[in-house]
Amino acid sequence: MNLREQLTYNEASLPSVKQAAQELYTNYGAMLLGYITEVVKDRPAAEGYLADVFSGLSTGDIYHIAGTADGSTYVRLQQYTRKKLVSFISTTDDCANVEIKGNRLIDLMNPEQQLVFCGLHYHGKTIGKLAGELNKTDEEIRQILKQSFNIIRSNRK
Predict the structure, then answer these.
(1) Which of 24, 64, 87, 113 is the most exposed place for a label (fewest CB within 10 A)?
(2) What SS3 state is found at 59?
(3) Are 84 and 52 spatial neighbours (Cβ–Cβ below 8 Å)?
(4) How many C-alpha atoms does 131 have within 13 Å on its Cβ side?
(5) Is the pLDDT higher at 100 or at 34?
(6) DSSP states of 130-143
(7) C-alpha span between 14 and 4 (Å, rounded)
């Protein structure tokens, strides 16, 4: 029985919730640890946050992350984790006023590219919302984001 079936048929059962959380950890824990380590820049702290993320999952969280067939389970788990790491990720408004440091690829971007990338990637804002905040068209935001990704692609080791 896969994770979605477990949650659908046994949603109120504590053992199935624990099993679903364990399956999320087994399938995505290593990738999520890599993401958290990149955010906090400290492996032991990242391991602690990873434990907090998985131990803090409620039945509703697990169902939202793994119980729906549309989209990526990992992306939803990463979004949930971002909320837990909010102290390490400054707000989009803060990104406008300071340069983002600590990531060599982001350091290569100009401030506008950093702002767009930060808003979309770290804060999960939509292109439309960010366009409104920055007084730009959706197409201009897409173009800036494309430039950001080109910087990332062309400078990977």
Answers:
(1) 87
(2) helix
(3) yes
(4) 13
(5) 34
(6) HHHHHT--HHHHHH
(7) 15
The whole-angstrom separation of Cα 151 and Cα 112 is 13
**pLDDT for the residue numbered 102:** 61
User: Domain ranges in the chain?
Assistant: 3-87, 92-154
In the structure, what pLDDT confidence band is assigned to residue 28 with cuts at 50, 70 and 90?
very high
- In CATH terms, 92-154 corresponds, of 1.10.540, 1.10.10, 3.20.170, 3.40.50, to 1.10.10
| Four-CA torsion 82, 37, 98, 157, nearest 10 degrees | -120
Per-residue pLDDT of 40-53, as tens digits, reads 777 888 888 898 88
DSSP string, 3-39: HHHHHHHSTT-HHHHHHHHHHHHHHHHHHHHHHHHHH
CA angle (59, 65, 66) in 5-degree steps = 90
What residues have CB less than 8 Å from 75, skipping those under 6 apart? none
